[in-house]
Request: fold
Amino acid sequence: MITIIELIKNTFNDNNITEKTTPNDVDEWDSLGHIMLIQTIEEKFKISFEIEELLEFDSVKDIINAINNKIT
Amino acid sequence: MELIKEEIEHNLADFYLSFKDVAHVNFEKNNYIYNIHNNINNWPSFVLTKNYNSSFSDIFGATKTIKNLSKNWILESDFVSKNKIEIKNNKLFPIKNWVGMFLEINSVIPENEINEFTIEKLSSINIDECIALINTVNFNKKILYKELFIDKINEPNFNFFIGKYKNEITSTCIIYNNNKTNGLYFVCTKKTHQNKGFGSLLIKKSINYLIKKGESKFILHATKMGNNIYKKIGFKTYSKLIIFTKI
Reply:
């Protein structure tokens, strides 16, 4: 199964993404890129984020933690 | 509290409207919908609900009359909490949150001096460097242009401050006066100089400059990152806003 980090790498076509990466570090990760990423994640992992949760995502690590909290 | 919220938003509206041909504003339905369209930074079509009894579809209905409505919307968080389903059904996606803050003060704020840090007013000599700094720090892309600001440098209601450390520009802060309040805009610090107190000291010195000229009311919209700095200076939160973009 594809890991979350691989999914994010594929979404932005950037192999340098790590847990510490933030949207400011990736050119493609603007507001539209962010929307695309969240939609991909929700579809892939069959989860749904609340509005407040989406506003807390400041890094890849935050996204990984939020997904893990929903699927475990 | 409602009056202070209005003062915060009016300053923002006046600030964007002061840039000719790049913004327009609409007040709809007895002032409860407030809409700004600005092309400066592609932020907001700005919608605030001052009457929580209004329905979400009322807002969409009212704003349909506004031409060139951009895709971005700002809604107050209390309103968002009550209208989550409609927001989702209308495919609005949250991308950023702000808090509207206010400070009323009559005596200067104590400054913790940093050696070799000075502030000065922006001049046409260093405007390119400042615009580049704001674009890099705030927007990650080049979307502010010096043509927007070049005429503002000498306007009395615009105070464009820059902070220098060892003669290098490290931080910027524009304070705009709309004859009621003073709004802080484009407050940013160069990434290599963040978390060292340069931004905070520039804000204090800029505010103090205006306090000494008799000003006492200051407003701003803070991101999560800047929120604590402003609280330490004495700003209090009066509104919570979320920017949505229409998918």
Observations:
- The helical segments of chain A are 4-12, 31-45, 51-54, 60-71.
- The domain at 4-71 of chain A is CATH 1.10.1200.10 (Non-ribosomal Peptide Synthetase Peptidyl Carrier Protein; Chain A).
